[in-house]
Amino acid sequence: MTQQSMDTFLKTLSSSAPVPGGGGASAYVAAVGMSLGSMVANLTTGKKKYAEYQEEIEQIIEKAGKLTDELADYMQKEPFEFVVKNALPVIWFGNLEKYKASKQKIVTVGINPSNQEFPFGAKPRFDVPSLLPENEEKIYDTLNNYFVANPYWGWFTQYEKILEGSFDCSYGGQLQAYNAFVNNTAIHIDCCSAIATNPPWGKLSDSKNKKSFGLICLINWLITWIRT
């Protein structure tokens, strides 16, 4: 399957063929997400500003490459019917540059993206025409602009109230109160998987949770990166 052209893969995916299914598609978007992580690390490596973290950055690049290969291997395996269709792997929510520039760095943490991040028939929260490798920068931008575009108010407003009220901080964008002036920008990450599932993570069986690609690796490299 990994040797197919994109055109062949998409035509087969949309057909009645049992493979590829949810597993192949979700493994593909996860591999693209991991490649995006590699891009961030590669944009950082070799820069004098981050020289003291060079060894960690090189480890991230190596691990990201291995995980991408593992995800490609998953494309050959059974469907993952519990993965939300057409879901983008959401490695982070919010503006990384503003977060990095903040004196007080705050990260809120969840389990995995809600299926409400990809509402059927409604305005999309992520503006990405496709998950092809050439769209890596667009994927980066849409994750950065999440709170500016169309955030999931039902989930993030509860965090925003705490951030603004207690930590001189905000996600920014649409969630920041009109009368709130804060000096720091927060981001959000999910610690178990970057992939949205239906039913929610907490209602999945242990075996299905384990099949969600072990994307704990994504949060590991991201935590290392945001510490630099």
What does this structure look like?
By secondary structure, the protein is mainly alpha-helical. Helices cover 45% and strands 5% of the residues. It has nine helices and four strands, in the order ααααβαααβββαα. It has helices spanning 6-13, 22-44, 54-74, 96-101, 136-144, 146-149, 153-166, 206-211, 216-227; strands spanning 107-110, 169-170, 184-185, 187-190. The strands form two sheets. The protein has a two-stranded parallel sheet with strand order 1-4. It has a two-stranded parallel sheet with strand order 2-3. The longest helix has 23 residues, at 22-44. The termini are far apart. The model has no long low-confidence stretch (mean pLDDT 78).
What is the strand tally? Answer: 4
Poorly predicted spans = none
Topology as H/E string?
Answer: HHHHEHHHEEEHH
- The helix content, as a percent range, equals 40-55%
The number of helices is 9
Which structural category do the helix and sheet elements fall into? mainly alpha
